[in-house]
Structures are given as C-alpha cells and as structure tokens.
Amino acid sequence: MLNYSPTATHCCNVPLTPTCSSLFKSSPSSSLPNSLSFSSALVTQQLASRHVYANTNPNIKSKPLHKGLKIMCSTSEPLKVVISGAPASGKGTQCEMIVEKFGLVHVSTGDLLRAEVSAGTEIGNKAKEYMSSGHLVPDEIVTAMVTTRLSLKDAQEKGWLLDGYPRSFAQAESLEKKNIRPDLYIMLDVPDDILIDRCVGRRLDPVTGRIYHINNFPPENGEIKARLITRPDDTEDKVKSRLRIYKQNAETVLSTYLNISKKIDGNRPKGVVFKEIDSLLSRVQKDKEASKSGKLTVSDSHSDGKPSNKENWRGIPTRLNNIPHSREIREYFYDDVLQATQRAINDGKTQIKVEINIPELNPEMDVYRIGTLMELVRVLALSFADDGKRVKVCVQGSMGEGAVAGMPLQLAGTRKILEFMDWGDYGARDTFIKIGSIGGKEVDEQDDMFILVAPQNAVGNCIIDDLRAMTTAAGHRPVVLVNPRLKDLPGSSGIMQTMGREKRLEYAASFEICYCFRLLYYAGTQYPIMGALRMSYPYEYELYKRVDVSAGKEKYVILSTFPKRPTGEEINDAFEGKTRNETKRATGIW
Ligand code: AP5
Prior knowledge:
Blueprint: E1 2-3, H1 19-22, H2 40-52, E2 80-85, H3 91-102, E3 105-108, H4 109-119, H5 122-132, H6 139-151, H7 153-158, E4 160-163, H8 169-177, E5 184-189, H9 192-200, E6 202-204, E7 211-213, H10 222-227, H11 236-257, E8 261-265, H12 270-293, H13 327-346, E9 351-356, H14 370-386, E10 391-394, H15 414-420, E11 433-436, E12 449-453, H16 464-474, E13 479-482, H17 501-509, E14 512-522, E15 529-536, E16 541-550, E17 553-562, H18 568-575
Parallel strand pairs: 2-4, 2-5, 3-4, 5-8, 9-13, 9-14, 10-11, 10-12, 12-13
Antiparallel strand pairs: 1-14, 6-7, 14-15, 15-16, 16-17
Helix pairs in contact: 2-4, 3-12, 4-5, 8-11, 9-11, 13-14
BIS(adenosine)-5'-pentaphosphate binds near residues 87, 211 and 269.
C-alpha cells in the first residue's frame, strides 16, 4: 500500500541543514584492456573523414547561449558525452554539429562496425549478420571496440562523444566497471512513425560520411545525389525490429545515467535540437572550466566539505531519507528543477509551479529546511538572470490585520534570508534580481519574471487574491510558484470559508506543474522509501521503485511512465506489476 500524500519525512532528523549557513558569502583515467584486436587504424580514419566534412550546414550558428560564456574546446578535463536514442532519432546528425562546435572525438559504434564490415575484417564478418538483421552485435565485440577507441590519445585529450553505446545494461555496466563515466547522457526523443520515415528516407554519402534524407535533407547537387547509398538495415521491417530492441533496453541503460541524463525532443528541426544540446553542453563545460580554475559556480558555492557520494548513486540520488543531503544531491535537484522550468518558460508557459518534496526541501517537517528551498530559488533566479532576464523573487509578507495578522510559520524570516543571501559577485542583486512580496503592486514594468517562494494560505488568511492580482498584473510574464500550498484552510474562526471556494481552487489549479518530484511510502508510514514519482516538463511522469542492491546500497529502477499524473491506484498497479489496461479492482490502496 503506497502513501501518495505529499508529506515526507526522514529517519535521521538533523536539525540544521548546512545549506542555511552556506547561503551567505562564503577524471578518472581508464584502464582499457585490448582483449579483442580490430582495425583501429581503419576506424580512426573512417571517423576522421566524418569529422572533416562535418557541419557545413549554414543553419547552425556556434553562438554561446549563456552571456559571458567562453567555450574552450581543449581543457585538461575535456567533455565526455553519450548521445542515445532510437534508430534514426538523429544521433549521427547531431554528432556532426556537436563535433564541429566542441571538437570532441566522435565514437559511433554503428560507424565503427560498418567500417569493419566494409573492410571485410574478422570482426566485420561476425558483425555483419547481426547488423543486417537489425539485431545487436554481441557485447564483447562492441565493448572491446569502444573501450579501445576511447583510450586513444585524441579521445583522452579532446574529450569524446559516444554515439550508440551503451545500448544494453551489460554495456553500461562494462563502462561503469572501467570507471568510464560521461558528464552528460543525452536522449533524443522522437515518435515511432517519424523514426520509420527517417530511416527509410535516409541516404549516406560514402565519400564524406554526411547523412542526407531524400525529403528532409536532400543532397546539395546531382553529383552527390548519384553516389548516395542506402543502409541495408534501413528497410521498414528492420527498422521496426531495431526499434523494438531499442525499447527493450532503453530504460535499463537510462537507469545507469539518470542523474546526468537529459531527454531532448528530437522531433524538431535539427538546428533547434542542436541549440538545446549546445546550451546543455556549454553549461556542463562551463562548470568543468569553473571547477578546473578553482572558481566556484553558483551551485558549487555551498560545499559542505563532505566527500563526494555521487559515484554511489546512479539516476535518482539514493539515501534520500538521510538529511542533510550532500551537495551533489542538492545540485541534482536544483539542476533538474532548473531544466524543467527553463523548458516550460521557453515554450511560453506563464503560470507554472514546481512541486518537490524530498525531506530536505520540506519545510512542513522542519522550518530549517527553508534554507535548502532558498538555495533552490537562488539557483533558479541566478540562471534566468544569467540569460538576461530581470527576476523578482517574492515571498509573501504578513497577512491580515490585528489579532489575526500573521504568516505561515515556515516563511517567517524568509524575506530577511533572501535579502542577506549571496547573490553573486557581478552585481546581479537590485539589477537583474530583486526581492519583493506577493501582490499586484509588486509587479514593476521592468520585471521579466517572478519566482514566488512557497506561497501558502495561513489560517484565517487566504493568499489567492494577492496571487491573482499579481498574475493579472504580470500578464504574459512568467510567474513560477515553488512549492505552493494553495489548498483552502479554515478561517480564523475555525470555520471553512465557502464563499468563492470553487473559484479559488480553480485559480490554484490553473498553474501548470513544470516539475514534480515526490517520494513514495507505504500508506501510514514514512519509512522506508518505496519509490519516487518524477516529472520534468514537457516529459511524462516517471515512476521509480527503490531497490536494495546490497547491504547499505540502493538504486531507483524505472517501473512505468504516464502521460498524466498517475493516481494512487495506477501507482499501486505499477508496483504490483499490472499493466495499465488491466481491469481495476478495489484495493483500498491510496
Ligand atoms: P547505428 O548506426 O548506431 O544505428 P542506430 O542506432 O539504429 O541509429 P541510426 O544510425 O540509424 O540513426 P541516428 O540516430 O544516427 O540518425 P541519423 O542522424 O542518421 O547502429 C547500426 C547497427 O549496428 C545496430 O542495429 C546494431 O546491429 C549495431 N550496433 C551499433 N551499436 C551497437 C552496440 N552498442 N551494441 C550492439 N550492436 C550495436 O538520422 C536519421 C535520418 O533522419 C537521416 O536521414 C537524417 O537526415 C534525418 N534526420 C536527422 N535529424 C532530423 C531532424 N531533426 N528532423 C528531420 N530529419 C532528421
């Protein structure tokens, strides 16, 4: 029986999160056995040819998305990226552009294998039948190829972009065991029918290695057109088989990289897709540059001095019942919320809300948790300010008058914390970032967006009217609620106010969730954690089960996804292994 209530607590209650104080100023090399010999010279040459001709597309501008960000393509700790996605999701196409911009070494298992096949090597002969039938080539062949390729000097020095690997849980485990871990795991998301059309229409230029499509990206001239070839595995039947195999493996591979994974909508023009990838990679590179130079980034500035435990969890951070959370765990959530909020705002959403209820961010349990909430708000505000937006961070003031005046306990003192917080060295405070309250009068002409810290009703005082006045005054400008609590509370007399209740609830529901993370417990308990529900705009709700791996070790495994927020019953069904269409019976589970 799973508890789907928003409240969550912790087993080890440490009263003061370290993040309260930190709000104020203040690569592994891989050992790569070459167990299987293959023609690495051949594949290196083949890869190089793809790079030389990469990105002649005039639509792709190499413009950094973040103000003041200088991209350095050669650093002592270069970028390491995995790009994944179904057949024809556009991995190769995006890789051309990524290589052009970031100078990474592109390692495509498909390209490596095709080179072996066309050279008639022993490996090529073995791989041929698997590839032409749309099946995966045995792990030991592919893994040896990849690890050897990644160990070469150019990949070590320039960084790498791994395309089409790992494609199974065993392959992901192989990389983990060799301590080869990417900085970012990109997943291109494209609907099935589009994928089939893309595969069937794909053509390759054997001279330049460039990828074309008979309709989407026709060749530039007749000479190129005449020499184009079709891949033998690009027939409709084989594509369907490849797609099925991809789907069987995708979730388990993802579970290895969840904390560094970014799903990207690949069903958009390739330049638009690249823009989002470019922004992500630039951000990761910026963080690496900053840590290399010893300069702390916003999210680094609250080091708690504890050893890193990032390596101990994959995907969703583990040991979430233990607080205070480590810096890595907090950063995971700040970044996750930020990405979702950015996507929602970029898509033109104006009334959105974030609902995140890990123990560390749950001031209902412990007022000191407000420090972590403030830190999250700061990450959001500074990131939007970095993009040139004037952000007003708002916390409600005391409401009501006389004996009934007051504010929710959790928010007492929050405004002062906001004012004294470290808002960076670049004079962002009072220019790009302002502190305000909640209400129509708080909206100034120059404000571009508003972040509201945990707006909530207090007994006897309803925040909805002030909130409504604010969103009306804000018009088309985004208003982001972080952990709001807008359900109706009893009036000061202890009696439920019924006048206008329906309209109040309707208004509260008009804010669209752009990020949700909720821990799940058995009903009536708050320990142990059974799983988690996560949604990051615009993607589906993801349901995870927490699994004990070995003594003291746990991980989260994805159980199911839902296009809409699942009900308690749907969550229970997924935990019990029932399919979504199975006839529901009354379970008494909530
Ligand atoms: P591989 O070559 O990796 O094939 P794949 O994963 O099926 O991916 P594709 O190369 O088909 O597609 P893509 O995502 O690169 O899309 P592209 O950019 O070309 O692997 C082939 C085989 O090798 C496997 O089946 C397996 O047998 C074996 N293998 C490989 N790795 C393995 C591993 N790790 N383990 C075991 N076996 C392994 O784009 C596709 C088309 O769409 C193009 O025509 C393009 O022009 C067009 N397009 C791209 N982007 C867009 C866009 N945004 N809008 C419209 N059209 C677009």
